What we know:
Largest sheet: 5 strands, antiparallel
Shape: globular
Number of strands: 5
Structural class: alpha+beta
CATH class: Alpha Beta
Distance between the termini: 50 Å
CATH superfamily: START domain
Helix content: 40-55%
Order of helices and strands: HEHHEEEEHH
Amino acid sequence: MKRVLQILILLFGIFLVWYFIIKPNDYNIHFKAQTSAGLAYDELLNWSAVSDLPESSAIKDPELYKELTQEVDLHGATYVLNWTITRINDSITGINAGIKQPGKSLINRLLIPFSNTRYEEQTLELVKNYK
């Protein structure tokens, strides 16, 4: 019994280290789009031109038709969105938005499992606007 408890505590500790230190994003949103990977990528690059929701947007580290990182200012808060685009077939693309809020990662990760936060609402609004 003592050995089982030690293993459970160890596993819980490993999970906490992964969740608070290693995990790259605070919040992830996955969805499928009925479009090609190239069109989805181009729409992300030109998102600020066709939408008025993000106040400003800076694009970093683009990997052609696969990944890009965007910095967006929304309602006075800065978000870093790590977009990953995966081609499923000719007409369906899987899109993953990994979202971080610099300087507030710890508090966001603490609150997300237990309550609906303003952070969650704003990030969902942001990704729905793109979708």
